[in-house]
TrEMBL record:
Keyword annotations of the record: Coiled coil, Membrane, Transmembrane, Transmembrane helix
Listed name of the protein: CIC11C00000000949
Acidic residues bias (residue ranges): 758-767
Predominant place of localization: membrane
InterPro entries: MFS (IPR011701), MFS_trans_sf (IPR036259), Proton-linked_MCT (IPR050327)
Species this protein is from: Sungouiella intermedia
Amino acid sequence: MTMDPDLHNTNTVVVEVPVTPNPNAEASAPVPEQETKEKVGHSPSGSISSVSSSESTEKLIKSLSMGKLDINKDDEPPLEPFTVSPIQPASPSVSSLLPKANNAPKPIKFTVRKVSRDTIALPETGKAQNKEREYAYGNLPENREKAKERKSAEKMSQLQYSQAKYDQYAARIEKINKEVNFLTNLLPPYNVEIDYVTRTKITKAIEKLRMKQDEIEKKKYSLGISISRLWREHDENEIFVRSVSGEIDSAPLTRHSTNVSELSRILTGLRDDYEQDAAEFELYKSRPVPEEALIEQLELVSPKSERDDILEKLEQDDHPIDGAFAFWQAVLAMLMVFSTWGANAAFGVFLNYYLTTNSFPGATQYDFALMGGVIVFLAQILAPMTVLLVRIFGQTPVHLTGICLQTLGYFLAAECTKLWQVFLCEGVLVGFSFSLIFIPGTLVLPTWFDKQRATAMGIAVAGAGLGGLVFSLSLNKIIQETGDQRWALRMVGFITLAVSLFGGTFLRVRTPKKSKFKDRFNKDFIIKNFKIVFDFRCFDNYPIITVGVWFGVVLIGYIIILYSFSSFATSIGLSHTQGSNILAILNASQVVGRPLIGNIGDFTGRANTSVAISIYVIILIFAFWFNTTTYPALIVLSVLMGSAVGVGSTMAQALAGDVLAKMGRHEKLPAAWGGLNIIVSCFCLPAEVIALKLRRPHSNHAYAHTQIFTGCCFLMGLILMLVCREWLVRKTFESRRSQAQETLNSRHNMHLRRQETPEVEDDEEKDDDQLLQARVERYDRLLGGLLIYFIIRMFYPLRV
């Protein structure tokens, strides 16, 4: 006898009895079974039980086989409170019940239904125990409220434990940061010089602390996700997550929708990436500038030198980092840039004069254009070599040498009467002097700044625009009053001499070196420094090469605009004075534009800023400059163009740092810095020659081809930067996918003590796993190898 599953709720008992037919009996008479087994099922209350004897079972079978059933006969005990009814509505016939010959016995199936309508009560185990069962089943409204309050209290206790653990991780990270800062202050250039072995030990100790910090950060990130889960609120099909406090700076899984469209899923993914960008913002902003990385690497190979006690040196140094004196050093560095790149920004005035007069008989326009290219070429290609000279001979001797060469070049150029003479003086000597003057200033700034490093570099590079403004206005006035360029060249020599001497007198490194010259002027020291600056193994991948070529092509466009704006003004009927004013306005806009570009790049991403500005400049060239024919329109164009045209010089080194950071080779930044200068120098040399070759002097639109070529340069730069951006986005996706996968794999190692039941806990962990898994799947799709995914990564909204 077994319980029929379909009749479970009606307390029905099913009896299955096998029957063996007797071949000698009549067709209408059944043969009783030799042995009958009966199984009785119990009701849920346990009040139903039945045991029948073999005799009564045999009689019951006999009656069923003959089609008769009488349960009220005297020889059978009554089965109260049960009634027996067959499964079929009518009694089956004998022929249908008996199996055919030579077949297996066929069981007879019937049901026993309970007719009592009494309610099955709980076992009498005591009122208190019954009440506890009712409380557990949540049958009482007041008990349901108490259960909810108890669960809420348990979750709050768990939340407090998790938050305390999170605070411990944050405190440990802060402690490690203090230790790292202390060890960093022991290294040059922040304090006194120490020997190479000690520096190596300190550097390795810092690396170990950083690795330990990364491990704690991962635990803190996973714990932040768990804390967010504890605050989860369910609203229909969507899940909203909020952090427990504003101090949780990890990238939380902020929103997940379980039944959404593809568009909603895309928007959720974009929001998730935005949250991760916000979490990584401080790390992205605090990456060192190339000059700082260059100094750190070069200081690791400094020779042994005697030093005072570190504490005594700290007491003597009364000028803090990021202080007022540090910003004074930034102003002095700006003066170095003012006297070099600022003076070169006004070369367009000289070029315009040379093209419109016959100052040097036999000279062509391409000779004068090549002279301007030589200045930029030598200034860029000699920059890495200047670093080695500063390391060997010191800052002051190199700086004074540059001042002497620059002054000599300008004064001798004023006395030249032949083309080769002016080419040698104004081109070669001045080009040599540029790198010897401005490089020492840019190497000093990183020693004075930590948090305000980007602002300081912005102040320094603003000197190029300021110098162009001053020299553009003054040079044209002197040329008009004197009738030639001689006194204009002398004036530039006097001003640059005074400004450079003033800046070089007060510009100093925060911790002056005390090493002996013989320790620095030896073969081993020179070779070690040479390998750091000229280690071109960092160019074994296409992203860093792409950055270098991008820098070169946009710098070609910059040089053409800078040198051609003044002569373009005269070609459309404006005077030389108006042309000089246009060039002055262009340079004045760079004073504001260059620092602004750097700050925008820190907040929105350097590759994003480079792409946006390239598009902006392309629109200005083809839509505005190409159709400009009046003086007011050219003034507006100069303001708009000058604020953005220097994007290459402002962003190239920082972009190289981003690429190397994604590859985990940030120590190669000094070599990348030197390599970029060498690559760019090759592009700068023929820039203005190409511009003049494309000019059509006798046409109504003389600079049409030049404008088209300039726009194509920035268009080529845009394409290259999009390729570089795709690589940066791809590496970011790979890094975030790996981090999400590690978090997903390490969830079983989380040891958060929770008071909830295992079933509820498994559901919550499964929910978080789904959120993490959604992130991994999204990155798997975006990292696809098809062309469509390549294009998506180019334009995917991400801070890179």
